[in-house]
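Newbie here. two chains, one complex. Structure please?
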Amino acid sequence: MSLADSAHDTYDDLHAVVERFFRASFSTDNPVITEAIKRMLAAGGKRLRPRITLLSAEACGGNYADHVHLAAYMELIHVATLVHDDVVDNAQTRRGVNATAVDYGNRVSVLAGDYLFAWIFKNVTLNYPHPIPNVLSATLADICDGEVLQLQALGNLDLPIETYVEIARKKTASLFAASATCGAIMGGGGPRQIAALQRFGEAFGVAFQMRDDLLDVTADERSLGKPAANDLTERKTTLPLIAALAAGNGDFRSLVRRFYDAGANDAIPAIVEAIGREGGVAATREQIARFVAGAKTALEPIEDGAAKRELVKLTEALAS
Amino acid sequence: MSLADSAHDTYDDLHAVVERFFRASFSTDNPVITEAIKRMLAAGGKRLRPRITLLSAEACGGNYADHVHLAAYMELIHVATLVHDDVVDNAQTRRGVNATAVDYGNRVSVLAGDYLFAWIFKNVTLNYPHPIPNVLSATLADICDGEVLQLQALGNLDLPIETYVEIARKKTASLFAASATCGAIMGGGGPRQIAALQRFGEAFGVAFQMRDDLLDVTADERSLGKPAANDLTERKTTLPLIAALAAGNGDFRSLVRRFYDAGANDAIPAIVEAIGREGGVAATREQIARFVAGAKTALEPIEDGAAKRELVKLTEALAS
């Protein structure tokens, strides 16, 4: 029985379904790695990727309860990439403390991420038909490709918006697209439904990344769970900054240039304020609205129903 | 036409076949990563894993020339694990130089390794039948599992030899076993041949690791291409040390204990000398001979011929 058939006729509980699975059923053959991954999972998260997998399966006539493992793999791929992101973050934030602890931490992080990728593929190649294993490995390649592009773009004030979108597509949207695609395939969707949900996931993912980049300059540290203006600190040229720079104010450009070159973090509040004043925030909201609209349009071939309504709801939340 | 049918009736050229493939045909979709991997490949190597794949295919009646891609993936899995090993090594040896360069290096190394794993699986899931993709992902999980066990064993003077062998099986022998198994499967081997070559690869791999650990305390830096007694420096308790400690000399044990605790690297020559005197070198040679004999016995179900002779030759070289 799907949640949609039950009393409330909504999918409010899918987050809880995924959480329950991680708490009760997730385990690998290596206790140290299982512990490291469980700690990462316990840190929370909206579980949007697995929820999109489950909703995509339902939207294609499947039953979400049959696809909880598959959905969990989508979150775990995300978690494995976060574990590897932390390797470098640890190296930065723990500088100066006991070097052995840092090294040991880095080693375990690298190995835990690798093991998790391998463990996912081991399970997926055993239990899922073509093209699921191929979609997932191609997606992981895209994510890494996008992250390398992002590294190459660090500190580049002239980053074209097209390159920014390409990076967002690869590092973020590819996994949302794979989450939707795999849910659609395993839920029994036809080629038209699968293609529609693939396009949906891609547009959703780009909007998601843009919103993340917007929050970095509009939200405070407490609501973000990480330092505000963290992207600026890391010299990531994201959409709000690109759009503000495009407004053509030479003083603003010089301010950012000096900050990128000299790294005086006390310039950040002025830059954040100027991004708003130069229209960077408004322009980013416009782009988000465009991709949100694109995601909703992509869903047109999908039959109306509770699952589609929930996908639309998740999408509209990105523009809120 | 296989090399075995040609004039010299040997497989002397398989190394060149693999090298030619890497130089002429290896490329990923990401130029930065391709460059990083090519640099790693150019550093050399015996290419034992791909040679074992090609020979296993031939030994089962296949034609090596049809399996060069598959063989290359075996080497590339090895290379990807080396790239990730270097993340931590770089952090150590480059300490003190420009931190951005170190961070950039680490980030690219983590991403390049991840991308390479993903790229391999993307190709393998597209082009090879079950169980090849599953064998490879299970092998990668084993490698990571073995490396985590090895980390947990660092500095443990009471490491049981069984645990040492388990670590060697997982971190090293699993990929040799997979190289042989996949070659056998794709070469058209029957279940008995596949199982024989799997056992061969596993025994070969354990002997290979033991020889590597032996060379660490018997060879000089120039022939190793890395610092001699590097395992000792890293507090890895390997077979020569385990065997020497088992001889029960309390003074030797105290010497190693003090070195592990205090890290005075000037104690290393005395420890290396004592490992020989206490019988650690001789005992390791005995164990290598045992696994070499096991590998040769495993080959019994394989039909005599040039490929089998070459596998035996590679195996006997481990005991030389």
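Moderator note: The radius of gyration of chain B is 20 Å. Chain B touches chain A through 46 residues (CB under 8 Å). Thread marked as resolved.
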